[in-house]
Amino acid sequence: MFTERTSVGLDVHARSIVAAAVDGQTSELxxxxxxxxxxxxxxxxxxxxxxxxxAYEAGPxxxxxxxxxxxxxxxxxxxxxxxxxxxxxxxxxxxxxxAIHLARLLRLGETTSVSIPTVEQEAARGSGPGPxxxxxxxxxxTSPAFEAVAAPRHGVRRWGGxxxxx
Length: 166
What we know:
There is one protein chain. The protein has helices at 38-46, 64-71, 95-108, 119-125, 144-153, and strands spanning 6-12, 17-23, 29-34, 52-57, 75-79, 156-159, 162-165. It is of the alpha/beta class. It has two domains: 6-108, ATPase, nucleotide binding domain (Nucleotidyltransferase, domain 5, 2-Layer Sandwich); 128-165, no CATH class. α2 (64-71) links the parallel β4 and β5 (75-79). It is globular, with a radius of gyration of 17 Å.
């Protein structure tokens, strides 16, 4: 049973987060584009009618946001993208539509959560594809594709060619 008043869907990317919230009592829709700062996300959630529940798709950014929100006492679900129901004929895919869709599915209880690894388990998995982690590979971890996946997990964001820690 859904006990929170507001359900929030987050479309998380390497550089920004698109958020959409649906108020369960008034059906009002709130939208925002947020930075990757956990503080920014929590402060936006604090402006919504509470209590709040949050869902976002599992992806290359890891589970740091989940851990931060649950530590703050906010119910958060990391959902499996492959298990999300899509309306037939819905071919236009935008960040805002994805966030709204997640919020509505969360409200209906139609999400499938993934298992959240511990910090130690996530570190043991490594951050790149298996073959790149083989010993003796001189190119391990140097490709742009590897950096696009691995950097967000470790708090490194790339803007204008500069590395910045989040």
